[in-house]
Write a structure and sequence with these properties.
- This is LiaF transmembrane domain-containing protein.
- Keywords: Membrane, Transmembrane, Transmembrane helix.
- Pfam families: LiaF-TM.
- Helix 2 packs antiparallel against helix 3.
- It is built from four helices and two strands, in the order H-H-H-E-E-H.
- The model has no long low-confidence stretch (mean pLDDT about 75).
- Among the domains are: about 25 residues; about 60 residues, no CATH class.
- About 60% of the residues lie in helices and about 5% in strands.
- Strand 1 and strand 2 form a beta hairpin.
- A two-stranded antiparallel sheet has the order 1-2.
- With about 130 residues, it is mostly helical.
Amino acid sequence: MENLIKKNQADKQLGLGILIVVIGSVFLLRNSGIDIPHWVLSWHTIMLGAGLWIGYRKNFQGSGWLALTIIGAIFTMKDISVFHFELSRITTALALIAIGLYVILKPKGIKNFENYHQEKTADFSDLNK
């Protein structure tokens, strides 16, 4: 149990260290005169990253991480323009497709009831005393 706790703390430290290095690198590149898009460190990109990180930490169980990821992705895609084509035109369609794929591909909570059926006999011998 103690090893599991130490591994969990090491994973947190590794993730936090990578996050700090990435943010520092973006600031360094931006201050060096290299053109970094404004959306890279915006609130919605941070929300997208936080949603994915929470999902990873919880093995993508639950739906809290999904809400953060979808909201962050929608606003981030509105800011990104690729080849002079604005992704905001197709953001809603992509979000609906992503939600549909999640509903289709998420693990099902099917339970096998074969093991629950056990033959138990009632003992009424104590009632006659």
